[in-house]
User: What shape does this take?
Amino acid sequence: MRITFRFLVAPVIALTGILLYTTLTASNPKRTIQPEKGCVFMTVMGEQSSEGFHRYRSDQNIQLAVRDGLEWLSNGQLHNGGYGAGSHSTQHIKDPHAVKADPATTAMVGMAFLRSGTTLKKGEHAKNLEKVLDYLLETIESAESGDPYITQVRNTQIQSKLGQNIDAVLAAQFLSNVLDRNLDGMDKKRVVRCLDICVARIQDGTDEDGKQKGAGWAGVLQSGMANNALESAQVAGVAVDKEILERSKNYQKANYNEKDGSVKTDDGAGIILYSVSGSARASAKEARKVKTDINKAKAEGRIAADAVVSSEILEEIGYASGEAQRYGTAYKVYESAKEMAQRDEVLDGFGNNGGEEFLSYLQTGESLLVNKDEGWKNWYDNMSGRILKIQNQDGSWSGHHCITSPVFCTATSLLLLTVEEDIAFLQKIGEEE
Assistant: This one.
């Protein structure tokens, strides 16, 4: 949960956040969103942050929003332990109990519980998390070996909008997070086995260009999340095909041209936000290495203090020729894409918020943390204010186009509001081998 953050005191902050969350839950104050007075932040581009949004970011507003969102999700769990977004043809149905469970939505909810500090043994929602894990493991284990997907549930909102393989993608991310936390009470061998199955589906579903097959309306997001899932699985200790992962990264990075700022949106429903957030995320790890190496070379006096990153400079500090070109491009893509992804006109996405917008916001924020980018706090202050302002009175969030599912949108919003709880894991993803 969000409080004032500094990297060196993260453990203390996490504990403080948990204590504050417990206090607020016990006293059960009513959630009212009040703007902070005299609170003006700047975006990483140096522009004024969105008026009417950043003012709503305060510690108590966030704590109460997370409390109510988690409670709403807890009450929305189905008998089999899963959660559903509903079918593409029945998007008007918003009752979480009136839809069929699907792995993609369930995985998002599971990650929201995890990121809030819930474990299989501790926390108000421990039983919910336990049921989520059981549902996903049983679903994955039931998948036929020749089936390209992990579930027989088809035509869901999430599949139609993101892609047919999104269930394996999001389940892999959830299981990687479970393994990283080494939760007391889990069957580790079983979790690893199911993660292996999901990784295999993702890799089999990656085409020669690095895209995920069976793309939906905004398929670039499925491909972006697939890239993230493979990186997460790798950090969790599962074998990942490096060639496929590299293709996946290259596809995401190629959607953004750092030289002229143009964005390919063919696979993103024509929406710049969807593509550019993936470009920033896929280049974050390589850009972090460049930043580290350049700063070290400057400190050692091997290059001028005002040297600008280029393939020539990278060769000068020891990169091989082809490597220098690849890393130099990744650095420029990241630096440029992260800025574009935070411009007001880009953040507006489709014009209002659907699940795709929430996912894109989350990808941008996670890319900043993977990169150890100090600008992440400015992003968080602005973005959390946006999210807080549109929470429903019952604690949920709803999409207003495409992915309208309140379950999916609530889980994604909570993942954004509690992103600092996964800082350690996200930074591990950004470490070079």
